[in-house]
Amino acid sequence: MNRLEKIESEQESETAPAPVIDSLAPIRDMVSACIQCGTCTGSCPNAFAMDLTPRQLWYNVIRGEKETIFHSKTFSLCSVCYYCTLRCPRGLPLTDAMSALKQIAAKENLAPYKKSVRFYKSFMESVRRHGRVREMEFMTLYFMVMKNPLLPFRFAPLGMKLMSKGKVSVELPSKGSGTLEAIFRKVEELENS
Fold first, then answer.
1. Rounded CA separation 53/47 (Å)
2. What span, in angstroms and rounded, lies between the C-alpha atoms of 83 and 41?
3. For site-directed labelling of 51, which of 15, 79, 142, 187 has its Cα 20 to 30 A away?
């Protein structure tokens, strides 16, 4: 490359906008061979509750309709039963694609999925501290991150019923034993690399 070509390429790189990262690209690659047969929809035990059928979701993923996909509740209703993956005539990893959509929604902190992300993080915080979930601490953490003072009152009747049957015990908050701390740190390290 001569000097003039080098200067021109530097000028183009300075004026060119940064490439937009398409977060759907890996998922699109997973489902690009979809033939829209509907077997995934016919196999899904939760399809009745979805606003887009799994087949329609994959169509939107292939087309890159991010707005439609993330305003849908389809992938959040996936129960990871693997029926769609097992029955797909093309052998597509549909359950993995659903999980990838859930991860994108969590990473981008999309409004419709904030509750479930906060619920999950509160659950994992309790497990991280104690090696198992401590229900009272878990729900307290969840209520605190939701910042809604009326939310606990919605769950109070259920909590009282569970406590009366001995299903939930009242335990004082503690820092926990930290026996799983090293495992959690290693996972975070692997996820960030």
1. 6
2. 10
3. 142
Judge contact between 156 and 168, C-beta under 8 A.
no
Task: Give pLDDT tens digits for 1-47.
Answer: 554 454 455 544 444 443 335 788 999 999 999 999 999 999 999 99
DSSP helix/strand/coil, 121: helix
The answer to whether the pTM exceeds 0.70 is no
Instruction: Please name the amino acid found at residue 108.
Output: E
The mean pLDDT value for 173-189 works out to 82
- Which overall architecture, per CATH, does domain 22-108 show? Orthogonal Bundle (1.10)
Instruction: Give the residue extent of every domain in the chain.
Output: 22-108, 113-192
Of the CA atoms within 13 Å of residue 142, those in its CB half-sphere come to: 22
Longest CA span, the chain: 82
The residue whose two tokens read 């200067």 is 7
- Write the CA distances from 191 to 14, 28, 104, 186, integer angstroms: 32, 22, 14, 9
